[in-house]
Amino acid sequence: MSEHDRGGALAGDGTGAPGAGERDWLADRFEEHRTHLHAVAYRMLGSLDDADDAVQDTWLRVSRSGADDVANLGGWLTTITARVCLNMLRSRHVRREESLEVRVPDPLVSMAAGSQPEDEALLADSVGLALLVVLDALTPAERLAFVLHDMFGLPFEEIAPVVGRTPAAARQLASRARRRVSGAGLAATDTDLARQREVVDAFFAAARDGDFDALLALLHPGVVLRIDAGSVHAAASMEVRGAAAVARQALSGLTTLLSAVRLTEVVVNGAAGVVAIRRDRPITVIGFTIADGKIVEMDSIADPERVRRITATLSRAEVIAGQESRSGFTERQRPQ
User: Fold this and answer.
1) What is the band of 84 on the pLDDT scale with cuts at 50, 70, 90?
2) C-alpha span between 104 and 133 (Å, rounded)
């Protein structure tokens, strides 16, 4: 539709709100950008539900204001989404300062055989859980500047008004965030999913067999294990560091559990992972970060309600019938 048409028949009623035709035009354009906006919001917030809310809030704002005189609709929508996310991050940041709970960001989960269509764009340029954990430690303004500039290429001139800074100050925010991300020492991860899967299967086989030495051989010396059991079971949440400590936790926490669940292979943020199934219900999602054949990070979400939401894009039949982890489990070991 031409700008002339939009300025005439589709114009609003003079109150500033778009007319019906303009809203229809905006709705169509918004849908064209929705996947991109969701990708921005997910990297900003690390939560699938919050990302959904941010995109919906963006639409409500756009539908009320219209897009008159907007030259770059995609960039404009991105900055609106960023403002919404920044407000959400600031509110969350205050709450997090009062909490010592371990939190693992929401992972993007797909079946090993292929991703869901709505997740394909996100997974094609997937951000690993390890990076999301680091992003969670940034200030809201640092995270926004880093995500918008380093991940999506927005110029600092467009980022500056969102954070209420000059372009030079916005550049400094991104620079500080970049140093913190670099200082986190994130390893260059293995990209071969089949090789990752071999390491994950070997880990669970060693845990099932109670083989401490085999576990140590699979773990990087500086490995980090995070378990997020949710607010209801906060006492079960923990962060464990070091190969020996993580191996001991695996033996105490997994050896018995593995006889009562079935592990289904999934892809978690583009890397190997599993969903633990008990009585045909997903109860735990575990993502692995693997570098040079060693596990450097394990991120586990064991909050049943959150696991249900995270795996909601997978059909129940897919999860139940999915490829079983090749770690030696047999039919008789599965719960009845």
Assistant:
1) very high
2) 7
* Domain count within the chain: 2
| Rg of the chain taking only CA atoms, in angstroms | 22
Question: Residue written as tokens 């599993």?
Answer: 274
pLDDT digits (tens, 9 = 90+) for 174-210: 999 999 999 887 878 888 999 999 999 999 999 999 9
- Nearest 5 degrees, angle CA 189-CA 195-CA 199? 85
SS3 105: coil
CA neighbor of 77 nearest in space, from 152, 150, 15: 152
**Same domain flag for 153 and 238:** no
Sheet holding 238-241, edge to edge: 109-111, 262-268, 271-278, 281-291, 294-301, 219-228, 238-241
Give me the DSSP letters along 308-328: HHHTTTS-HHHHHHSPBPSSS
Beta-carbon contacts of residue 138 (< 8 Å; ≥ 6 apart): 146, 177, 180
pLDDT tens profile 110-141: 886 555 555 554 544 568 888 999 999 999 99
In whole angstroms, give the CA distance from residue 96 to residue 90.
Answer: 10
Query: Which residues constitute the domain of residue 20?
Result: 3-101+129-183
Task: Give the whole-angstrom CA distance, residue 206 versus residue 201.
Answer: 9
Domain boundary at 183, 214, 246, which?
183
